[in-house]
Write a structure and sequence with these properties.
5 strands; three-stranded parallel sheet; mainly alpha
C-alpha cells in the first residue's frame, strides 16, 4: 500500500497520459492502481475492500498498458489490484471495472530469462487459478470453457519447462495459460488456496506463487468429494468407465511439479509460529475463500494450514 501511495503521488506531479506496467504481478497491479488513482483525490487505502472507507472508483482513470514478464498471476486481465497493508497485516483488493487495462501485450519472450524456481512458482499460481476458477461456486460457462482448453496446455507447459527451462514453445503455452487464468478468475472467482495465500501473505513476506504451490495439494485433498467430477472433466478423463481418481492424479502431478522445480513442500523455513494458525485461518476469509466449492470449518482450515507449516 505504501509503495502504491508513493508512486501515485509521483505520477500526480506530472499527470501522465498513459501508464505502462511491465513486470510481474506486483508491478502490473501497481500500474493498475495508479491508473485509477492518479486523477482522484483519495488514497489507495480508501478503496481497499474490508479496511478502507468503502469508496468505489466510478470512472476511468489514465489508460494503461499491461506487459507481463512472468506467466503467473494473470493480473494483466483482472479488474482488481492486490494490496498489502502493513498496518492491518492483510492483503486486500482495490477493485473496479474501470481498472481493466486498455491494452494487454503478452510476449512469451519476456519470460525467457526467468530461473526454474520463479518459473515454477509463477506457473503453479496460474495452474491453481485455472483449477479454482473452474470449480468455484461462482463459476460460469464461458470461463469454464476457456479453462477447459487452457488447463492441459498449462500443465504440459510446466512439465516441459521443468525439463528444459529454455523451451519457448512451453513458455508460450504457459503465457497463454496465465492469461486465461486471469480472465477466468476475474469472472468466476477463486477458492481456498488463494484464501490461504491471502491470509498468510498479509502476515509474512512469502512469494504468492510459493504459497499457492504449497496449499494446492492439501486443498485438493480437502475438496476431493466436492470437485471429483469437475476434475474428471478438466483433466480430460471424462470416461464413464474410468476407475482413475482425477483428484489423486492431479495431486500426484502437483507433487511431481514441486520436485521438478525444486519447490519445498512446506513453509518451515519462514518460521511461521503455530500459535498464529487460528489467526491465519480467520484472515483467510474473504472473496477468494467464498468461492471454494466446499465450505470449510475453522478446524478444517487450521488442519490445512498446519499441513504446510
Amino acid at each position: 500500500m505504501e509503495s502504491i501511495s508513493r508512486v501515485t503521488e509521483q505520477a500526480r506531479e506530472f499527470d501522465p497520459d498513459l501508464i505502462i506496467g511491465c513486470g510481474g504481478g506486483s508491478v502490473i497491479d501497481t500500474a493498475k492502481a495508479v491508473s485509477g488513482l492518479v486523477r482522484e483525490s483519495d488514497g489507495i487505502g480508501d478503496y481497499c475492500e474490508g479496511i478502507g472507507k468503502g469508496k468505489k472508483l466510478d470512472k476511468s482513470g489514465v489508460p494503461w498498458i499491461a506487459i507481463p514478464t512472468t506467466a503467473g498471476t494473470g493480473a494483466e486481465a483482472t479488474k482488481n489490484a492486490v494490496v498489502i497493508s502493513k498496518t492491518h497485516r492483510a492483503k486486500k483488493s482495490f477493485r473496479s471495472p474501470f481498472l481493466l487495462a486498455s491494452t494487454i501485450i503478452v510476449d512469451p519472450e519476456l519470460t525467457a530469462g526467468l530461473d526454474p524456481y520463479i518459473t515454477g512458482i509463477s506457473g503453479l499460481d496460474a495452474l491453481v487459478q485455472l483449477i479454482e476458477s473452474f470449480v468455484s461456486k461462482k463459476a460460469t460457462p464461458m470461463p469454464r470453457a476457456l479453462v477447459k482448453h487452457a488447463f492441459p496446455v498449462m500443465l504440459d507447459a510446466l512439465f516441459n519447462l521443468g525439463k528444459d527451462i529454455k523451451d519457448m514453445r512451453a513458455r508460450t503455452g504457459a503465457a497463454y495459460g496465465a492469461l486465461i487464468s486471469g480472465i477466468a478468475l476475474a469472472n468466476s472467482g477463486l477458492g481456498a488456496v488463494h484464501g490461504f495465500a491471502s491470509g498468510i501473505g498479509g502476515l509474512f513476506d512469502i512469494p504468492h506463487g510459493l504459497l499457492c504451490a504449497e496449499f494446492l495439494v492439501p486443498v485438493l485433498k480437502m475438496n476431493a468429494d466436492a470437485i471429483r467430477e469437475d476434475m474428471r472433466v478438466l483433466c480430460g478423463g471424462a470416461r464413464e468407465n474410468s476407475n482413475d481418481d482425477p483428484v489423486e492424479m492431479l495431486i500426484e502431478k502437483t507433487i511431481m511439479l514441486l520436485d521438478l522445480f525444486n519447490i519445498p513442500k512446506d513453509l518451515g523455513r519462514y518460521g511461521i509460529d503455530k500459535s498464529l494458525i487460528t489467526s491465519i485461518a480467520e484472515k483467510s476469509e474473504g472473496s477468494s475463500m467464498s468461492g471454494n466449492p466446499k465450505t470449510l470449518s475453522l478446524r478444517e482450515k487450521e488442519e490445512i494450514i498446519l499441513s504446510v507449516v
